[in-house]
Design a protein that fits this description.
Elements (H helix, E strand, L loop, with lengths): L2 H14 L4 E17 L2 E19 L2 E7 L4 H17 L32 H16 L5 E20 L4 E19 L2 E11 L8 H13 L10 E7 L1 H14 L2 H5 L20 E4 L20 E6 L2 E2 L6 H6 L8 E2 L7 E2 L4 E3 L6 H6 L3 E9 L9 E12 L2 E14 H6 L1 E4 L9 E2 L3 E9 L2
Parallel strand pairs: 7-14, 13-18
Antiparallel strand pairs: 1-2, 1-4, 2-3, 4-5, 5-6, 7-19, 8-9, 8-13, 9-10, 11-12, 14-15, 15-16, 16-19, 17-19
Helix pairs in contact: 3-4
Amino acid sequence: MNYQELAIQLVDRAKRAGADEADVFLSVGRDFEVTIRNGSIEVLKQAVSKGVGIRVFADHRMGFSHTTDFSPEALEHLVNETVGMAKYATHDEFHGLPESYGAATNGGLELYDSSLDSVTTEMKIAMAKEMEQAALSFDRRVKLVEGASFSDGDNQVFIANSKGFVGSYKSTGSAIACSVVAEEGGMKQVNYWYSNKRYLSDHEPAETVGRRAAQRAVQMLGAKKVHSGRFPVVFDPLIASSFLSSIAGALNGESVFRKTSFLTDKLGEMIGSESVTIVDDGGMKRGLGSRPFDGEGVPTARKLIVEKGVLKSYLYDTYTSRKAKTKTTANAVRGYSTTPHISPMNFYVEQASHTPEEIVKSVGEGFYVTGMIGFGVDMVTGQLSRGASGSWIKNGELAFPVHEVTVAGNMLDMLKNVEMVGSDLEFRGSVACPTIKIAEMSVSGN
């Protein structure tokens, strides 16, 4: 089946059925997963999927439907039903397709790894087993690997609309992950490590992932609480990325418009220290959030969101940008079963020159955070309070493991108090941050 031609035909049918404007999002994909536990296969599954969603506008009223049935009868019903829904929907002057489209090309993005086609199921199972064995052999205190997994998939997206835009792209992704239980003196610690990439060749070796997961679990044995107070806090890249994800949520143009974000009315203001520059880049080579165009067909680009502490832009799709009387930032993301919503692409803090070791060495006494639990973030006020674990720093050295403590602060204050940014930026998802040091936060322990 020629899916691109099908998408164009569905747009034409919607116009003939009475839509003023219409767009179609169609995707075809494959997913694979294997999980090893105790040397045996615990999970082995593969699935293929395809679906199409159609969005229509009639007198600024929107209708949306989707289906996985590609029979001619089902698609005809889909179009007629969606146009009919739009005629009864609420009128909203901000509904409609983007006003214009620039040139979107796939050149240079390198989203598709053809080498995955030659990786057999047996090879994937072997990688997962190698990871488990590496974790178990790392230290006698590693008692169990809860799961060592390999997953991969590919996806092809087709978009067409009534303004003449037609585009498609193919992408792949794969991940290897390991979760480990270490035990000593009746204390258990669970930790993990993973690698997530577009290209198989960009992964850390499976053995390295397994050993790193084991190391992270073992180094937390003997963890204890610490006295409460206000101390410098260092976030490792995983935890810093989690913090940055909350910042991305606060930059959502819809939340800003509704005044439910602590960054509302902050455009042009200093919201962070001069050490903080945040970028959103949908055109990054091999980026996990990269694509030539967003879910509405608007070409993606590199955008400075925060420049040396100054807030330069929020994130918008077409609908929200119209309400805010600005332009879309090409941050509309969707699947075939959803309408567009705002999301970052490759969202990151630019790295600096400080190594993680230099950052730790700069702390007389403080907390190096490598784990967090809970979702204690108030997006309206910016208040953050989460359970944390990691290592206590004394005289610039990691002294002993710490758990069952809480770190708290206001995210605006945290941004403004970023004293050092690391040189260790690495993407394990579409949001990434190097090691960062925050001058002071509340740490609650004993």
